[in-house]
Amino acid sequence: MNSVHPGYIWTPMVENYLAAQPDPEAAKAFVTGLHPVGHLCGEADDIAYGVLISRPMNPSS
Question: Which in 1, 2, 16, 18 has the greatest CB count within 10 A?
Fold first, then answer.
């Protein structure tokens, strides 16, 4: 069994959360610093395509 844990991805919910902070740029820097790769993990479609690519070609296996 595989699982996907992308962390924060750029969605309207994250965008609204960051915009509502007293210092949105500092909040974005903090959230970005939580990721080992040093940036937000893209958009929801980026994660979906990664999942599609990593699925088995033969679903019965």
Answer: 18
**C-alpha dist (Å) from residue 55 to 1, 47, 48:** 10, 13, 11
Coil vs helix vs strand at 10:
strand
Write the CB contacts of 24 (distance below 8 Å, at least 6 apart in sequence). 18
User: How does DSSP classify residue 57?
Assistant: S
- Whole-model pTM? 0.64
Paired with 43 in beta bridges are 10
Taking every pair of Cα atoms in the chain, the longest distance, rounded to a whole number of angstroms, is 51
Q: What is the pLDDT of residues 1-56, one digit of tens each?
A: 677 877 788 889 999 999 999 999 999 999 888 887 777 768 888 888 888 887 77
Per DSSP, the three-state class of 43 is strand
